[in-house]
């Protein structure tokens, strides 16, 4: 009877999910309620986690809860520390959930709500979640080795070295982009700067509380941390309105960049229990609390989506970024569906904290599901805005015009009416001077979130909600930056360990300090270049972000597919092989367009040549001519890095295929690098107690 009841419930969930997805996909010409998006997401996620994830964990991976994890076997009190699963989940989610699930869907709304929504839902459950869970499992079975080191151990010197170099280089670019976004979010914003700064000492207090004052009292420490975080948010507003104190936190971008670099270095060398884990854990409360509040507000209000399912910009003429629906919707969405950066966290800090393999499904697959839900929330927050307002905020002045009257005329001509008075009123409500040409996705997302919160909980506080949303996005990003820096340190130690084994010891302080400094110097250089760029830096680094991130995911799935085949699991290799094939296709297509396209809004080299021709002809105004050589260099750098990354990707793919074909043919290959089975004492103690 119980089995029949359970089956009936899951059949109903499947039917409801199918109806919701069908309604979203087939709706044309009429407004659609956002409740359908929430319903579709929750039903798809529930079915995927209950059945697909459970099957992969039990059958494909064969997780073993009696097996000791690296955190238990190699416990050193600094990097390898068996940690409560909820704290690990909080750390993992905080580390993986950067700007991608917030900014990517917002920008992809240029194509309409439908393409991005479908990719977020199904790309996550079939690709992103699988990558995260499988990578976490494989790293846990290999002494928490980094992705690049696993590639070297399993594929050999050629593919492994390419993977090591590729993952580390991509990592540097990704962290630099994260740093640039958070610096731009905090620049001349005392409220955001004060609140984000306060999370650092708060995290250390919570870490010491759980480690020394009240060991094991997770709920007490969590309550203390949440109370202090809320006080930090309120205190940030108070500081912002204090003429004297606000000057202490009102800084230029370059000053903040140096502080961000110093924070990244500290997060990489301090014990994980003191700063990184508790800070990310507490940041998760802010993230989950805000997303939950947003979901509640959407359920209460049930606003309608105003953006059409598909816009005319699927042909590649969009004002926010150039490029057709394929492949650029997948590159733009990035982290909301699948992210290579997650593989670095899943093979970096998280397996060093995991106390039991049974938690891999919850942390790996479940953590990515939660990030995908964040992306769905971001898509809804962007598309409930009037399309004219959305495009006015996100369209660069170079496309729609510098003057407000020219911008509204251009946007209205596309069929998305908007007025100057409408935009000025909105800016006043948000406490901003103007909202025109606030590119990058973050401001329009904050406006959408503030509008929903204001309608549900009080429109008199729109400015408060807007600045809270900006601060929320900054915290989202900074927690990814600190974990990324630590993972970069692990990766560099692994690489240097191939030359001098002593450097691979994560507890040897000279290696820790040296590699941390080198990693921070690497991404700090690109951050510095981005901050001093007259165009705000996004044009230098952001185009690389989506392509590099998806290429990194392809590398992770490539390594996973190779290991599955070497583990005599050829019949299950499609689990990682299918998303790998798709990612290689879209990243190669996007890279080719960015390298070879004649369209100056798409191709890096064509844009550089266009600027060079205008500079030589004297067709540029003096202020732009002065910075044009730097812009040309940046575009060439983007182009050559894209070519470098795609060559490395194909090299790794071919090497993986070579190793697999040799194994299947019975020829010698490198043995599996899996650590020997060791019985877990933590499980024994738990059972006995």
UniProtKB/TrEMBL annotation:
<keyword id="KW-1133">Transmembrane helix</keyword>
<dbReference type="GO" id="GO:0005886">
    <property type="term" value="C:plasma membrane"/>
</dbReference>
<feature type="transmembrane region" description="Helical">
    <location>
        <begin position="572"/>
        <end position="592"/>
    </location>
</feature>
<dbReference type="InterPro" id="IPR003706">
    <property type="entry name" value="CstA_N"/>
</dbReference>
<feature type="transmembrane region" description="Helical">
    <location>
        <begin position="158"/>
        <end position="183"/>
    </location>
</feature>
<feature type="transmembrane region" description="Helical">
    <location>
        <begin position="540"/>
        <end position="565"/>
    </location>
</feature>
<feature type="transmembrane region" description="Helical">
    <location>
        <begin position="325"/>
        <end position="345"/>
    </location>
</feature>
<feature type="transmembrane region" description="Helical">
    <location>
        <begin position="365"/>
        <end position="385"/>
    </location>
</feature>
<feature type="transmembrane region" description="Helical">
    <location>
        <begin position="35"/>
        <end position="63"/>
    </location>
</feature>
<keyword id="KW-0813">Transport</keyword>
<dbReference type="InterPro" id="IPR051605">
    <property type="entry name" value="CstA"/>
</dbReference>
<feature type="transmembrane region" description="Helical">
    <location>
        <begin position="639"/>
        <end position="657"/>
    </location>
</feature>
<feature type="transmembrane region" description="Helical">
    <location>
        <begin position="221"/>
        <end position="239"/>
    </location>
</feature>
<dbReference type="Pfam" id="PF02554">
    <property type="entry name" value="CstA"/>
</dbReference>
<dbReference type="GO" id="GO:0009267">
    <property type="term" value="P:cellular response to starvation"/>
</dbReference>
<keyword id="KW-0812">Transmembrane</keyword>
<feature type="transmembrane region" description="Helical">
    <location>
        <begin position="84"/>
        <end position="104"/>
    </location>
</feature>
<keyword id="KW-1003">Cell membrane</keyword>
<feature type="domain" description="CstA N-terminal">
    <location>
        <begin position="33"/>
        <end position="590"/>
    </location>
</feature>
<feature type="transmembrane region" description="Helical">
    <location>
        <begin position="259"/>
        <end position="276"/>
    </location>
</feature>
<feature type="transmembrane region" description="Helical">
    <location>
        <begin position="116"/>
        <end position="138"/>
    </location>
</feature>
<comment type="similarity">
    <text>Belongs to the peptide transporter carbon starvation (CstA) (TC 2.A.114) family.</text>
</comment>
<protein>
    <submittedName>
        <fullName>Carbon starvation protein CstA</fullName>
    </submittedName>
</protein>
<feature type="transmembrane region" description="Helical">
    <location>
        <begin position="288"/>
        <end position="305"/>
    </location>
</feature>
<keyword id="KW-0472">Membrane</keyword>
<feature type="transmembrane region" description="Helical">
    <location>
        <begin position="189"/>
        <end position="209"/>
    </location>
</feature>
<feature type="transmembrane region" description="Helical">
    <location>
        <begin position="464"/>
        <end position="485"/>
    </location>
</feature>
<feature type="transmembrane region" description="Helical">
    <location>
        <begin position="506"/>
        <end position="528"/>
    </location>
</feature>
């Amino acid at each position: 009877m119980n089995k029949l009841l359970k089956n009936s419930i899951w059949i109903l969930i499947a039917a409801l999910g199918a109806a919701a997805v069908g309604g979203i996909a087939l709706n044309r010409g009429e407004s659609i309620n956002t409740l359908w998006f929430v319903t579709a997401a929750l039903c798809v996620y529930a079915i995927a986690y209950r059945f697909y994830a459970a099957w992969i964990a039990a059958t494909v991976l064969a997780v073993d809860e009696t097996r000791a994890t690296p955190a238990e076997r190699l416990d050193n009190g600094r990097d390898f520390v068996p940690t409560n699963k909820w704290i690990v989940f909080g750390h993992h989610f905080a580390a993986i959930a950067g700007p991608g699930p917030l900014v990517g869907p917002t920008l992809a709304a240029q194509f309409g709500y439908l393409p991005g929504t479908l990719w977020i839902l199904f790309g996550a459950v079939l690709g992103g979640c699988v990558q995260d869970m499988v990578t976490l499992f494989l790293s846990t079975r290999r002494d928490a080795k980094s992705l690049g080191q696993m590639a070297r151990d399993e594929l050999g010197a050629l593919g492994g070295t390419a993977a090591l170099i590729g993952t580390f280089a991509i990592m540097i670019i990704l962290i630099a982009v994260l740093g640039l976004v958070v610096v731009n979010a905090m620049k001349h914003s005392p409220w955001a700067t004060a609140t984000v700064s306060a999370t650092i000492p708060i995290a250390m207090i919570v870490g010491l509380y759980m480690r020394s004052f009240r060991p094991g009292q997770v709920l007490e420490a969590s309550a203390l941390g949440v109370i202090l975080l809320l006080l930090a948010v309120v205190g940030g507003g108070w500081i912002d309105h204090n003429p004297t104190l606000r000057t202490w936190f009102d800084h230029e971008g370059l000053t903040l960049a140096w502080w961000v670099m110093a924070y990244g270095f500290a997060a990489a060398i301090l014990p994980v229990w003191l700063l990184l884990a508790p800070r990310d854990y507490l940041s998760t409360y802010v993230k989950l609390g805000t997303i939950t509040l947003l979901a509640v507000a959407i359920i209460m209000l049930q606003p309608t989506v105003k953006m059409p399912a598909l816009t005319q910009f699927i042909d590649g003429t969009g004002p926010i970024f150039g490029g057709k629906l394929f492949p650029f919707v997948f590159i733009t969405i990035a982290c909301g569906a699948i992210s290579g950066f997650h593989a670095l966290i899943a093979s970096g800090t998280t397996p060093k904290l995991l106390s039991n393999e049974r938690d891999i499904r919850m942390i790996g697959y479940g953590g990515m599901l939660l990030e995908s839900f964040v992306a769905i929330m971001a898509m809804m927050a962007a598309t409930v805005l009037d399309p004219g307002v959305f495009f006015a905020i996100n369209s660069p002045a170079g496309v729609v015009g510098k003057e407000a009257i020219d911008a509204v005329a251009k946007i209205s001509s596309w069929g998305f009416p908007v007025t100057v008075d409408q935009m000025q009123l909105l800016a006043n409500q948000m406490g901003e001077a103007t909202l025109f040409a606030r590119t990058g996705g973050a401001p329009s997302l904050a406006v959408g979130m503030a509008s929903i919160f204001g309608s549900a909980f009080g429109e008199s506080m729109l400015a408060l909600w807007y600045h809270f949303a900006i601060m929320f996005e900054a915290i989202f990003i900074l927690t990814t930056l600190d974990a990324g820096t630590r993972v970069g340190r692990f990766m560099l130690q692994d690489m240097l360990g191939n030359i001098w084994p002593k450097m691979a010891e994560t507890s040897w302080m000279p290696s820790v300090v040296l590699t941390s400094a080198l990693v921070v110097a690497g991404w700090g250089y690109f951050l510095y270049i981005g901050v001093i760029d007259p165009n705000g830096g996004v044009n230098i680094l952001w185009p690389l972000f989506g392509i590099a991130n998806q290429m990194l995911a392809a590398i992770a799935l490539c390594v996973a597919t190779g290991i599955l085949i070497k583990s005599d699991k050829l019949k299950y290799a499609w689990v990682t092989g299918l998303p790998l094939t798709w990612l290689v296709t879209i990243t190669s297509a996007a890279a080719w367009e960015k390298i070879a396209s004649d369209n100056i809004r798409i191709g890096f080299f064509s844009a550089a040549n266009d600027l060079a021709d205008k500079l030589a002809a004297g067709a540029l105004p003096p202020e732009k001519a002065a910075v044009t050589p730097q812009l040309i260099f940046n575009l060439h750098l983007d182009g050559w890095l894209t070519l470098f990354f795609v060559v490395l990707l194909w090299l790794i793919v071919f090497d993986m295929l070579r190793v697999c074909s040799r194994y299947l043919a019975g020829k010698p290959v490198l043995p599996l690098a899996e650590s020997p089975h060791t019985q877990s004492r933590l499980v024994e103690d738990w059972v006995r107690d």
